[in-house]
Specification:
This protein has about 600 residues and is an alpha+beta fold. The protein contains 18 helices and 22 strands. A seven-stranded mixed β-sheet has the order 16-17-15-14-20-21-22, sandwiched between helices. Strands 3-2-1-6-13 form a five-stranded mixed β-sheet, sandwiched between helices. Strands 4-5-8-7-9 form a five-stranded antiparallel β-sheet. Helix 2 packs across helix 3 and helix 14 packs across helix 15.
Length: about 600
């Protein structure tokens, strides 16, 4: 291995001062437009989720002008979940072109763009071609998806070493983070390990594919790679944004876990330079990428964010401005953002670093610059509701009924619960599940227990197979997810946070029952943003900052975030008493599981 090894980071590490030469023609200027119709400044956000790539265009008021979605392929085989970077790029190109057409936005009007994506791991060779990460050897499958749990054993071995960097990950790495996955590839796919020239988080790869700039985001490297972002505290002046030498890697950590070869070449394979989110990368879009996307070469591209973190940027300032908060700089620190999709991420920021067992972070400047990020999460929420509904015997009939009505199955279930409440003369809707309880850890517990081996549990099943029974299981599952969020909020507040307001975005936030049950179960008001597509808006804010429309991400957030509906918890004391009781059952289910696990382990020892 080459280079001097270092523990943590050094305050004396300088910025990279190389000047970048422009290889592309200047952007078309406003002066070239007619005086009567100057070009608008439109910001493009791209988000790659688990099942689709989306593009959205926003004006200077943060209003969504148009969006489009393209499906992406996914391969699942047990704990292994894989995707293709080539397929994802093609889906992005299709979504961007369609969104521009729908919004009637010309390529010249797109002033800047940003990418957000799941924290999936991409492998490419020296030419940028895919390197397989699959047992199948299929070269298309060069992405280990975020939810892949093949590296549980590797994560446990890494955590057993108790490296100092782990204190910035809640005390332990999750198998969903990148070091365990990298170790799995090295131990199981030697040829792929030798061929890989770059290992990248998906959102960083998208920025690289668009600009040719290999600079990594502080968001991805800090949150998923154990990079110590606070190495750059003295380089936080976003007005002079530039890429920075990656001085936050802990070389001894990588050597201790058996991945010391990734330190070679000044960490060339995992990131030689990093930048704050929104930093303008390279010389903007390359001519090739611009042609594929239907945009203009040189369009500024901001350093990326993980999708949940983009949701945080797109929503955390979406609050009604009360007189008491106008001069309250700490108000943002009393909020938690729930980014609710396939999984749910719980994002809160603090001016001080708070070490919270079982909760990821503290991550410096990983979402909001200069703030420490705490990141809780539930690995399966939307995915769990889909699983519960689709695997019930009544599901086909329910799906047909929903299709005939032109609504989602969840809308049908919500209405069925309302009618059941009246039919059974229940005092309130939540009371329908007094005998039915769900522990929602069907894909392990990410926070605050941090137990990837945790399992889901259902207490109270009968031989009933009707749609009504499916509705009750659905409601109990929603409540179990809400109690999981309550557990995270209480745990964070017990370790220094003062969270009293929740903001929600993502697909599940459009489900009124889901949001109301959360408000009632947790006892907090929940604010929804004016624009539903908060992740796309967060990505677009990166583009606006890269285009110098706003000097900082914070200024972009304040300008483009806007509040929508506010959901308040029930004022009925009986509802609170009921949820408090079910929450105690929820907590007890996991304790029972641990007891059962111990009993069976003893039997097999």
């Amino acid at each position: 291995m080459s280079g001097t090894r270092r523990r943590g980071w050094l305050d004396t590490t300088p910025l990279l001062h190389q000047e970048r030469s422009s290889h592309y023609p200047d952007r078309i200027s406003v002066e070239m437009a007619t005086a009567a119709a100057p070009l608008r400044s439109i910001f493009l956000g791209v988000d790659v989720g688990t099942g689709s790539a989306r593009a959205g265009l926003f004006d200077e008021n943060g209003k969504l002008l148009g969006s489009s979605t393209s499906p992406i392929q996914i391969w699942k085989d047990g704990n292994c979940v894989e995707q293709s970077s080539t397929d994802i790029w093609h889906a992005i190109c299709a979504a961007v072109k369609t969104a521009c057409s729908i919004a009637e936005v010309s390529a010249e009007e797109v002033a800047g763009l940003g990418f957000a994506a799941t924290c999936s791991l991409v492998a490419v060779d020296a030419d940028g071609s895919p390197v397989t990460v699959s047992w199948s050897g299929d070269t298309r499958r060069n992405i280990i998806v975020w939810m892949d749990h093949r590296a549980v054993n590797q994560a446990e071995r890494i955590n057993a070493r108790d490296s100092p960097v782990l204190q910035y990950c809640g005390g332990a790495l999750s198998p969903e983070m990148q070091p365990p996955k990298l170790l799995w590839v090295k131990e199981n796919l030697q040829e792929s390990w030798s061929m890989a020239f770059r290992w990248m988080d998906l959102s960083d790869w998208l920025s690289y594919r668009a600009t040719g700039d290999d600079t990594r985001s502080l968001c991805t490297t800090v949150c998923k790679w154990t990079y110590l972002g606070h190495a750059h505290m003295d380089q936080v002046d976003e007005k002079d944004s530039r890429d920075m030498e990656a001085c936050g890697w802990d070389d001894e950590f990588w050597e201790e876990i058996g991945l010391g070869d990734l330190v070679d070449g000044h960490h060339a394979k995992i990131g030689r330079s990093v930048a704050f989110p929104g930093h303008s990368l390279g010389s903007g879009l390359t001519p090739a990428a611009a042609k594929e996307l239907g945009l203009v070469a040189g369009t500024p591209v901001g350093s990326s964010l993980i999708d949940a973190h983009a949701g945080g940027v797109g929503v955390i300032e979406s609050v009604p401005l009360s007189d008491s908060e106008k001069d309250d700089d700490d108000a943002i620190c009393r909020r938690m953002v729930l980014v609710c999709g396939t999984s749910t991420c719980h994002m809160a920021v603090s001016p001080d670093k708070l070490f919270i067992p079982g909760v990821w972070g503290p991550f410096w400047s990983a979402m909001v610059p200069q703030f420490w990020l705490t990141e809780g999460g539930q690995s399966a929420t939307g995915a769990l509701l889909d699983y519960v509904v689709e695997n019930h015997v009544a599901s086909p009939h329910l799906a047909n009924r929903a299709a005939s009505l032109g609504v989602s199955v969840f809308e049908v279930l919500n209405k069925l619960l309302e009618s059941t409440m009246h039919e059974m003369k229940a005092p309130f809707l939540a009371a329908l599940t007094e005998d039915l309880h769900v522990l929602p850890d069907f894909h392990g517990n990410r926070s605050p227990i941090a137990d990837p081996r945790a399992k889901g549990m259902v207490s109270g099943l009968t031989l009933e197979t009707s749609e009504k029974q499916l509705a009750l299981v659905y409601l109990a599952t929603v409540q179990g997810i809400a109690y999981g969020t309550r557990h995270i909020v209480e745990h964070c507040n017990a370790h220094g946070h003062k969270i009293d307001t929740l903001l929600a975005c993502g697909g599940l936030s459009k489900n009124s029952l889901y949001i109301q049950e959360h408000a009632d179960a947790i006892g907090c008001q929940i604010i929804l943003p004016r624009e539903n597509e908060s992740v796309l808006l967060g990505a677009a804010i990166l583009g606006a900052v890269a285009a110098k429309k706003y000097p900082t991400v914070i200024e972009g957030m304040k300008a483009l975030n806007a509040p929508g509906q506010v959901i308040h918890p029930s004022k009925d004391p009986k509802v609170k008493k009921y949820h408090d009781a079910k929450y105690r059952v929820f907590r007890d289910l996991y304790e029972q599981q641990l007891s059962h696990r111990s009993i069976m382990s003893d039997a097999l020892s």
